[in-house]
TrEMBL record, chains A, B, C, D, E, F:
<dbReference type="InterPro" id="IPR024078">
    <property type="entry name" value="LmbE-like_dom_sf"/>
</dbReference>
<protein>
    <submittedName>
        <fullName>PIG-L deacetylase family protein</fullName>
    </submittedName>
</protein>
<dbReference type="InterPro" id="IPR003737">
    <property type="entry name" value="GlcNAc_PI_deacetylase-related"/>
</dbReference>
<dbReference type="Pfam" id="PF02585">
    <property type="entry name" value="PIG-L"/>
</dbReference>
Amino acid sequence: MSEFTAMRRVAVVAPHPDDEVLGCGGTMARLASAGSEVHVVIATRGRPPRFSDGYMDRVMAEADAAHAMLGATRTHRLDLPAAELDGVPAAEVNAAVGACLDAIAPDTLFLPFVGDIHLDHQICFTAAMVWARPRSAGAPERIFAYETLSETNWAAPGTTPAFLPDSFIDISAQIERKVEAFAAFRSQAKAFPDERSPQAIRALATMRGTTVFCEAAEAFMAVRQIWRAA
Amino acid sequence: MSEFTAMRRVAVVAPHPDDEVLGCGGTMARLASAGSEVHVVIATRGRPPRFSDGYMDRVMAEADAAHAMLGATRTHRLDLPAAELDGVPAAEVNAAVGACLDAIAPDTLFLPFVGDIHLDHQICFTAAMVWARPRSAGAPERIFAYETLSETNWAAPGTTPAFLPDSFIDISAQIERKVEAFAAFRSQAKAFPDERSPQAIRALATMRGTTVFCEAAEAFMAVRQIWRAA
Amino acid sequence: MSEFTAMRRVAVVAPHPDDEVLGCGGTMARLASAGSEVHVVIATRGRPPRFSDGYMDRVMAEADAAHAMLGATRTHRLDLPAAELDGVPAAEVNAAVGACLDAIAPDTLFLPFVGDIHLDHQICFTAAMVWARPRSAGAPERIFAYETLSETNWAAPGTTPAFLPDSFIDISAQIERKVEAFAAFRSQAKAFPDERSPQAIRALATMRGTTVFCEAAEAFMAVRQIWRAA
Amino acid sequence: MSEFTAMRRVAVVAPHPDDEVLGCGGTMARLASAGSEVHVVIATRGRPPRFSDGYMDRVMAEADAAHAMLGATRTHRLDLPAAELDGVPAAEVNAAVGACLDAIAPDTLFLPFVGDIHLDHQICFTAAMVWARPRSAGAPERIFAYETLSETNWAAPGTTPAFLPDSFIDISAQIERKVEAFAAFRSQAKAFPDERSPQAIRALATMRGTTVFCEAAEAFMAVRQIWRAA
Amino acid sequence: MSEFTAMRRVAVVAPHPDDEVLGCGGTMARLASAGSEVHVVIATRGRPPRFSDGYMDRVMAEADAAHAMLGATRTHRLDLPAAELDGVPAAEVNAAVGACLDAIAPDTLFLPFVGDIHLDHQICFTAAMVWARPRSAGAPERIFAYETLSETNWAAPGTTPAFLPDSFIDISAQIERKVEAFAAFRSQAKAFPDERSPQAIRALATMRGTTVFCEAAEAFMAVRQIWRAA
Amino acid sequence: MSEFTAMRRVAVVAPHPDDEVLGCGGTMARLASAGSEVHVVIATRGRPPRFSDGYMDRVMAEADAAHAMLGATRTHRLDLPAAELDGVPAAEVNAAVGACLDAIAPDTLFLPFVGDIHLDHQICFTAAMVWARPRSAGAPERIFAYETLSETNWAAPGTTPAFLPDSFIDISAQIERKVEAFAAFRSQAKAFPDERSPQAIRALATMRGTTVFCEAAEAFMAVRQIWRAA
């Protein structure tokens, strides 16, 4: 029996719907099949005029379909303004993210990477880290940062924080489900060679897998891990 | 049941006897009480004229006593030349470390930190990493670097690799045993304010603990973690 | 006679009251006894509804008491909004911090660390650095970043700036005063194993001290030092 | 024939007028003489009451004169508020910068450095990087970050991103023109030893040159380079 | 006409045969078809008893076949001892590498990455950098570090130098030739999911490509680039 | 009275003669005029056949002349083999460097930078750091790393340790003496634009100076500073 099952109540924070699938769709599916609770926290929702309500409803429905395929327990929506998080007081973002995580009480957090080019990713990472400060024994036992195709690779290497994965989760048995779940996001998928494509998702999974002698894997940076006494 | 028990066969690589206690004595004790196999690999032995045989026999006996207190399963001695590892061909160090680890077949490795000021620490880290390359499904599932008082703090901050711990193991119930195990090394202990003293060991454990809301902890950098499919 | 006495007019910038004590309370006491002017700049004050005026008055009185114990020359309050600095235009924060520092004309600055998890810390650091740009011979001769328990350790190691101290000030004779000064902040202190506790303060001072063969020390990162011609 | 001529349509993003001259005035002149289009994008304009209209008109006229000396093709003004970019929603800055760069369609970008102490520099860097995401074959083939005297050296070494140049352009034949172009900014130049002085400009060019065996050079960090198939 | 053709005389330094193909086989093929001279410098040759002569002859013949497929101009063999470079005085390695590069007089260097786990890679990188010091106008105009499957990914992220590519060469038209050239190394290829497999090569090329909107690419770190005056 | 006078007994470690002048010749002169003892430790001496005895005698005489001009108290020669330090057991280098520093008992150390391209520089840095471990109250109070033209700039930015100076010593009154002292090394000086030229020395001093509003300065990285209790 593997320690994988120690992640019993998991929260994946997604700045925008589909980040969670790109970053840890395979892990979500594997955790769900193993019987863990998998919560998704969608931090933002696009607002008119930048994003029409019709468009956003479609995206949210796509997310629901994707999460169902992956076996997610529940999707939580914070409805903060997408692509405009930098204009919301940090205390407000922190409060919204914190309240949701308080309710979930996860033992494991998957967060977008602080070095992603999108400010919303950076802000969501920080908000979750503020919540996760170990001010009680109930703080989450594991925090991982995931990588997001089309966000993580497009910052400036050497001058912005680098995604250097140290933690790998085998998703050989889940990679097809991950690709299908991403395909549910018809509004977000692009044709290869764009990074938001099945070919890019497969190539990344293969690369991350072969690095640790798996056929497919998702890779993470361990941000904080605590092995508390029983 | 905690994932801590997933570390069932553990190898701690120590460049010199007592590094393993300073770096992970508490973790060793906790793992041993939890029923895990805990192997110590002492990479070097001082040689005359730098170190007399009598002195080294005494140190090795101290190590035996310390390991017994901590419940270690077995101590493996490679007897490479202490403080002279830079003069041994890397391939030879790698072979010696590798053969021993092959025999142990650990799922979890604890290594000295590559940024420690002592070259022996750097070389042992690298030799173990060479062995641990994931060229089969049997590669270790977890590799952690530990910190060693009097080695890790005395490199050059900002220009040599920095020890930035992300993984914390609660040793509140083991800190006394750790201090006693170090006290077994009469030949190595120094009077406070030297770092090789009980006061320094306690302060470090308190600091690493309080960072994650424990009374005492040992801190590590996660070097590589793999959650393979069952 | 030591160069310590060269710090004759010192400004400690604290985002919130008590940061200055956690970060350099011992140094403040030592400087004050050595006859230096020690100014504290409290950048923010909590505002209703987040913080009641009564609560803030109590905190400010605690700060006054703490500063008196440490022998501080004067406490300057900028009353910028606490936990909301990210909503104030940077130019305004810079102006407020700059005007105060202009009036103090310090030769030495102690600043919160730019990698602290709290945005207020990051913003105060930057504002002071903007003021300190060496555009005249009157720019401060020394700038140090201090560490703050409960802020500096809770960012993300490896992806946010790391606090790697290179400068250590012996506070063996001042550690008791530091602990007492922090105790004055009844509203802020927490029970161990929280980092905001006497035990954590002592452990950190011991650790930073033993690293340089002192019984207790405060540790800093040297940000900029200038040895001008006489 | 040198690959230098491959930079045929170049955009230099300047947070404030004169940054482009300090950072790549020599390169602009060399590119212009080689027949390339050289566009300057001045992102901000100071606003009353911080900056009077008269003052800003003078600065903009100085910029025109400088750009003419350097042979720039065209100066684009975005008129975002100077020293207040942190108060403009990122999406708005991104949109303004993006629209201008869309119109220019440069193959090569020169950007201010993300680690400069001035927030406007950081924000302009990021806005241009957002535009430059390689979501089509038309994304720019080369992105360089330039250094700006009085901005790049005054951040905090070791804790903010470091300017570590890897790319050097020989401007031995253009250094005089660069110094003259900067002299056109009468409102911005300061007396040595201030960094905004001819002596500092010459010294930096000499230093960057001698590092690669040239008499004078400008130095850059390569942020992204793409050698597409023909 | 692209600047790609500016790389007219290229040297690829390979610690061991096949590193050059894994790291820049596609680029070699593309450069060769574009009419550039492509020299390969094989730094080492395995020696008995570690490697039999028969085995090494076979490997070298595989290399010849691979280089012919890629259109390499010439293969230079230094025959330094493989996996034992750390035992050769640095001055001797530098001399051997330097003499060969002097004879080739390349304008462009492709080097193994200094952060690769294999010491031979680190030593070859440094030796070539010593040769490339810009002590005359004849120093190479471009130096890139390439990544090597099974070497670059297996160091310790965050504590050893990180491969963070900033330079991408489209090899969509060459990826098949690269895979075939690697297949020529029958003695070196392994079955997927080992990194030394066609699947891993393809996945890496796809990943590096999609990052910059190409179907396949090789990625590099720009170490030094100089645009000299004509 | 400035804290500069606190550096009363200074040791400058030079891997090869002239490094000390390039790195801190101005500081040596300023310290000597201020009445401090300034010791130079020349770690190596070239050996036949690489360097003839006649040549080395000449270089050593040049060093004597240069040190006299700068007012150095004494020159200590360790005569370890130049350009071959990597072949000497680290313990032997450490012993030689340590014995010399023990005899000098400096309160302040100036060391070559660990990221310099020359292995001798890296090894001398480390040997001195091993000696300087704070295992007693007599450990040096200040350790600075200096930069060396033709060594510090020619490593690989972003992958080898970066020289990011935080400490600046005004040498406006000493720059001429520094240039003359370097000129004493007729065997080492080269014609501009080589870095080992008066023009490069002046440009670097001007650059480092203007960064902190001085006409000329030498720049350092603070490696460790301790303000002990009196």
